[in-house]
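Comment thread on ticket #2218

A.B. wrote:
> Attaching the input chain for the structure job we discussed in standup.
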Amino acid sequence: MAAKKLAPLSSKPIHFGTFLVTSQVFHLTPLSFAFVNLKPLLPGHVLVSPRRVVPRLSDLSQDEVTDLFLTVQHVGRIIERVYKASSLNIAMQDGADAGQSVPHVHTHIIPRKAADMDDRGGTDAIYKLLEGEEGDIGQHLRERDQGRPRFPVVEDSQRKPRSEEEMAEEAKMLADEMDSA
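C.D. wrote:
> Ran it. Output below, let me know if you need it in another format.
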């Protein structure tokens, strides 16, 4: 059975840095968008970015900052409910030296549950994942767009790149949840 092609939330292209992510977007505001992650660190790991492509938080206008963080708050509530989480990690790497791999402001929203990282070193292990190869969104997107990794990558069995169809389906499900909230 062929996978059903889902219509994107926007008829206009939406970019995360140089990467086209239109089919991954599940929530739009006039100044921000939320989208599903190609290789989530945990189920439900999503990102929120301003529509305007700028590298640093300080490059945003006051209206963009307000909209970005109100969107993070709203999306976070939905993600926590949908993924039955008890907490959230909300993180931003602001600049290359802070670990930002795509020069476009973005905030990670990662739903958390009790003991969800015990097998990986405990609750705070999420920060090492964000800063390491596992959290390198830019590299994951480059590999997707080039069709293959530039260097051999040893995949952790729980984190494999998702197909466009899988991400579009999650984006549609979350868009429906956002609409019903």
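A.B. wrote:
> Thanks. Noting for the ticket: The longest strand covers residues 107-112.
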